[in-house]
Amino acid sequence: AQSVSQHNHHVILSEAASLELGCNYSYGGTVNLFWYVQYPGQHLQLLLKYFSGDPLVKGIKGFEAEFIKSKFSFNLRKPSVQWSDTAEYFCAVNSGGGADGLTFGKGTHLIIQP
Amino acid sequence: GAVVSQHPSWVICKSGTSVKIECRSLDFQATTMFWYRQFPKQSLMLMATSNEGSKATYEQGVEKDKFLINHASLTLSTLTVTSAHPEDSSFYICSANPPPAYEQYFGPGTRLTVT
Questions:
Q1: Which chain B residues have a beta carbon less than 8 Å from that of A34?
Q2: Distance between alpha carbon A95 and the CA centroid of its chain, in Å?
Q3: 3-state DSSP call for residue A62?
Q4: Going by DSSP bridges, is the β-strand pair B57-58/B32-38 parallel, antiparallel, or unpaired?
Q5: Does A102 sit within 8 Å of B109, measured CB to CB?
Q6: Number of helices and strands (H, E) in chain A?
Q7: Is the minimum CB–CB distance between A44 and chain B shorter than 8 Å?
Q8: In this structure, what DSSP letter does residue A53 have?
Q9: What is the C-alpha separation between A65 and B6, in angstroms, rounded?
Q10: Is A77's Cβ below 8 Å from some Cβ in B?
């Protein structure tokens, strides 16, 4: 069975600070990895995804993530956060076929202070 | 991008009644849709995979008879919570994969409150 662990449940940063949110997964086979964001009162939106190829993935709104297979990690980064990045961030995984349901981490509540 | 809608956005029902929630893919056809449940301040938990024209696949621990799923067309899946009880109160979210099936788009969710 798959599992996803997000280390930081609440993160508070000031604007312009750099961000890194940790995500580790547990699964022995090929995985697809995702980061989703949920802004207050809105539905989940895909930030970025990794299926194969270059382990450094760039997404929308200046976010990027790096897949490190040896560490079973897929950490999310942004060099300079903005107040509008305040949201809930979820790491998710499904198996290699890509058409399966997602297993989510518990989420990280990010607050950016102006 | 692909759009997934849900109806209703919120519903309040009395204990013992049944509630139907609709999930629609608005601009693409989806042979597979997924139903998730999200408890307050917690993550999403996959409940079941809805397959067009065949039976749904339920995750371990999800009661098939309580959460009835019907995927009658390529754009519509429904989740019926039967004989609802207060513990069924939750946020229910659906998603669908437009082809190719690697990226899920999520609906806005349905808030169910059982009194």
A1: 104
A2: 16
A3: helix
A4: unpaired
A5: no
A6: 0, 12
A7: yes
A8: S
A9: 30
A10: no
Question: Can you read off the two tokens belonging to residue B8?
Answer: 């209703």
What 3-state class would DSSP assign to A51?
coil
Which residues pair with residue A88 across a beta bridge? A38, A109
Task: Work out whether strand B44-51 and strand B4-7 pair parallel, antiparallel, or are unpaired.
Answer: unpaired
Q: Does A72 touch chain B (CB under 8 A)?
A: no
Per-residue pLDDT tens over the stretch A54-85: 999 999 999 999 999 999 999 999 999 999 99
Q: Is the pLDDT of residue B99 over 80?
A: no
Instruction: Write down how long chain A is.
Output: 114
Rounded CA-CA distance B54/B33 in Å is 12
State how far the alpha carbon of B30 is from the alpha carbons of A42, A54, B27, in Å: 22, 29, 10
Which residue, among B52, B48, B50, B8, has the nearest Cα to B29 in the 3D structure? B52
pLDDT greater than 80 at residue A98? no
Instruction: Specify whether the CB–CB gap between B96 and B1 falls below 8 A.
Output: no
